[in-house]
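Section handout, structural biology tutorial.
Before the tutorial, make sure you can parse a SMILES string by hand: atoms, branches in parentheses, ring closures as digits. In the record below the ligand is LARABZUK, and the chain has 216 residues. In the tutorial you will relate the predicted structure tokens back to the input. Do not try to memorize them.
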Amino acid sequence: MRPRSSKTTAKTCGLSTPETVDAAIGGGASHIGFVFFPRSPRNLSFDQAAGLAVRVPSHVKRVGVFVDPDDALIEQAIGAARLDAVQLHKTAPDRIAHLRSAFHTEIWAAIAVKTRADLDAAHHYAGVAERILYDAKTPEGALPGGMGVRFDWTLLDGFRHPLPWALSGGLHTDNVGEAIRRTGASLVDASSGLETEPGVKSVDKITSFLQAVAAS
Ligand SMILES: O=C(O)c1ccccc1NCC(=O)[C@H](O)[C@H](O)COP(=O)(O)O
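Predicted structure of the complex:
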């Protein structure tokens, strides 16, 4: 059991319809994730992202999710989806430093975790990112996120976090309370646990997940 200084907030990731965006906002999500990665079943076109982004009030932050993106993708996505932050998977610290100075945007660095040694990568992002997202390492060749894979939360015990952080990987309504109590996470993130099939989010699952976070 880990102490928390304030209520935990939630990012619902990979939303692609007005109904699910509205459910996330209505349920109290602090962040909404839009995926820009063509291999993902949650990938959005710039037009789709723009249409969803206008529904999001300013107190809810729009996070763009990318896998080692080029500058043009980031620039177009920030413009279309009016992103408040970008979440970068498989992106080296020097590349992140470049993107941060080029686009002056908040950066989240995703760290793929399976072992305690994997956590050490977080230290390389101090000074170049605003937040670390600890996500589960997925199988070789699979998408680097959105796979419903969980990592051993006890790996975080005693780890000295170099930056504010969020917990991700395999979270859903039935385990998020335990995850928060166990890790002390102040921000949690979920995607496939809120779906009926890959890429298809459920309003009911989003609502119950956010209720479980609020009750934790
Ligand atoms: O969600 C995707 O399709 C995705 C694709 C490529 C890179 C990252 C991706 N998602 C990142 C997220 O923030 C997910 O919410 C995170 O990986 C947790 O997913 P899940 O285990 O399914 O809850």
